[in-house]
């Protein structure tokens, strides 16, 4: 959908902001450009709508060289959202949102009506439409910025650190809102941030840039966290990337072990030094018998030690680790789709898989 072909930007003072960038942004995805300050993220983004002209290389949008259409026509198909929203202070919200439709020749009434719809789409009450930007919170202003970028229904949305000026709680709300919107609208979104957490949270693809305008790695969030291309990326994604990456790794490759099991209602012997897992008739785990439990003619649920969280086979490794860590027996219980017992897994096993760098 957006294709960078060996794109370089060198500013007149000799700074190479972007160096031979080749990357293709898939249609209908959120792709995040992430990297430290000054690594060329904004410059890369602004070359797409020709606010910055490349020194060399080619950019295609929808298969067409961006130099072919008139810049004004190109930009009508590309929404642009920046930090602090960049709203016009002397226009009310409806008129801010209606900016591009009005420029494209819509009637004022139609543009305003559309603006009202968009306000609601980004989660703001329509009554706010008459307010001015200064009368909104930072988070609300960002929502209006998103609404304005969506006004002409462009297939492409460029977002440059749109949420970095708001506090972390509001930021998370805005991220959720963007994901919800994207579900509905299916735009091709390029999102710039220097926050790796934000990048892996909202990106389907993540491009990690390094200083000097070089692309260090391009892949899914799981790829980047699990398998950093080099030390720079490894450092950038952070030391706790193993745990972060867990939620992206599925656990189908985990080797399961078995523990002794007994059935609720059946006669049981005394346990030895091992934990014994109690199942119901459907073979669903109900709890554990601790080591040294007395024999019983009929095992009752009330005699059991409550078990930790259960882990659905094949779901994320983070769930497997949670199950292992919360189990009184130190063994996370793994179940199938029907909730029936399949086996157990220890925290060590999960960590081994992470250290191997792959769930298989
Ligand atoms: N107009 C300009 N003239 C000269 N150098 C520039 C110009 N604009 C940007 N640069 C330089 O190009 C490099 C990349 O800048 P860019 O704004 O793309 O970085 P960035 O990754 O967006 O950084 P940040 O995270 O701080 O926003 C920087 O070294 C910057 O100083
Ligand atoms: Mg920038």
TrEMBL record:
Residues 282-311 are annotated as: Disordered. Residues 2-237 form the ABC transporter domain. InterPro entries: AAA+_ATPase, ABC_transporter-like_ATP-bd, ABC_transporter-like_CS, P-loop_NTPase. Pfam families: ABC_tran. It is an enzyme of class 7 (translocase). One of its GO terms (molecular function) is ABC-type quaternary ammonium compound transporting activity. Its EC number is 7.6.2.9. Keywords: ATP-binding, Nucleotide-binding, Transport. Belongs to the ABC transporter superfamily. This is ABC-type quaternary amine transporter. It comes from Tamaricihabitans halophyticus.
């Amino acid at each position: 959908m957006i294709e960078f072909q060996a794109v370089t930007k060198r500013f007149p003072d000799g700074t190479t902001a972007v160096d031979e960038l080749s990357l293709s942004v898939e249609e209908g995805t959120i792709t995040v450009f992430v990297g430290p300050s000054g690594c060329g993220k904004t410059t890369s983004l602004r070359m797409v709508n020709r606010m910055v002209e490349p020194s060399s290389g080619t950019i295609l949008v929808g298969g067409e060289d961006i130099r072919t259409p008139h810049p004004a026509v190109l930009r009508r198909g590309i929404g642009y959202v920046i930090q602090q929203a960049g709203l016009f202070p002397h226009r009310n919200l409806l008129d801010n949102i209606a900016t591009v439709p009005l420029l494209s020749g819509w009637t004022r009434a139609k543009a305003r009506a559309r603006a009202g719809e968009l306000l609601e789409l980004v989660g703001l009450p329509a009554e706010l439409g008459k307010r001015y930007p200064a009368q909104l919170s930072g988070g609300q202003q960002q929502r209006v910025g998103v609404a304005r970028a969506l006004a002409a229904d462009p297939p492409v949305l460029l977002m440059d650190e749109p949420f970095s000026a708001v506090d972390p709680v509001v930021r998370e709300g805005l991220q959720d809102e963007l994901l919800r919107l994207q579900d509905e609208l299916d735009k091709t979104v390029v999102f710039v941030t220097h926050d790796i957490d934000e990048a892996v949270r909202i990106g389907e693809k993540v491009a990690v840039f390094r200083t000097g305008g070089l692309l260090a790695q391009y892949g899914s969030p799981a790829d980047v966290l699990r398998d950093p291309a080099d030390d720079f990326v490894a450092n950038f994604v952070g030391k706790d990337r193993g745990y972060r990456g867990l939620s992206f790794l599925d656990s189908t490759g985990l080797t399961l072990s078995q523990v002794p099991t007994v059935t609720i209602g059946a006669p049981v012997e005394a346990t030895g030094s091992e934990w014994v897992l109690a199942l119901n008739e459907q073979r669903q785990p109900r709890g554990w018998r601790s080591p040294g439990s007395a024999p019983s003619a009929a095992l009752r649920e009330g005699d059991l030690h409550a078990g930790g969280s259960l882990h659905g086979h094949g779901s994320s490794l983070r769930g497997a680790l949670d199950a292992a860590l919360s189990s009184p027996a130190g063994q996370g219980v793994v179940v199938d789709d029907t909730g029936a017992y399949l086996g157990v897994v220890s925290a060590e096993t999960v960590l081994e898989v992470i250290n191997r760098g792959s769930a298989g």
